[in-house]
Design brief:
The protein is mainly beta and 124 residues long. Helix content is 9%, strand content 45%. The strands form four sheets. A five-stranded antiparallel sheet has the order 1-10-9-2-5. It has a three-stranded antiparallel sheet with strand order 6-7-12, with no helix packed on it. Strands 3-4 form a two-stranded antiparallel sheet.
């Protein structure tokens, strides 16, 4: 993911100017149908057992998720085309977003898994 949201750009700008922004204490991965720098991820599923999942990252420079991230669905949720990170499990602030390498069609109950090291956050 290289697309920072406006919120994340503002955090970075304050940090670079020694203004000590309040940084996230945890990040949560989310799936959706779109995204933009202003809003982050859009079109998150509702009413399908879906929930954002906590993600932990490691690395210097490029960040990679440590553990597998599992999204559980109890029913059809349509086609997910984007992934994003937020600073809260619900609501919160969007941090970054990206288009998935391939669309993920959720036609019924199941689990979508992103293995460890599958998600990267690259400073560019």
């Amino acid at each position: 993911m290289t697309d920072l949201t406006d919120h994340a750009k503002n955090l970075l700008a304050r940090a670079l100017c020694a203004r000590l922004p309040t940084l996230p204490t945890a990040v949560f991965a989310a799936l959706g149908t779109g995204g933009s720098d202003a809003t982050g991820l859009t079109g998150e599923p509702a009413g399908t057992g879906y929930a954002r999942q906590r993600a932990t990252f490691t690395g210097t420079g490029m960040q990679r998720n440590v553990d597998a991230i599992r999204f559980t669905f109890t029913g059809a949720a349509g086609t997910m085309t984007h992934i994003g990170l937020f600073d809260a499990v619900t609501g919160g602030n969007p941090l970054t977003w990206s288009t998935l390498q391939a669309p993920l069609t959720v036609a019924g109950p199941g689990v979508a898994i992103f293995t460890g090291n599958a998600l990267t956050v690259t400073p560019e």
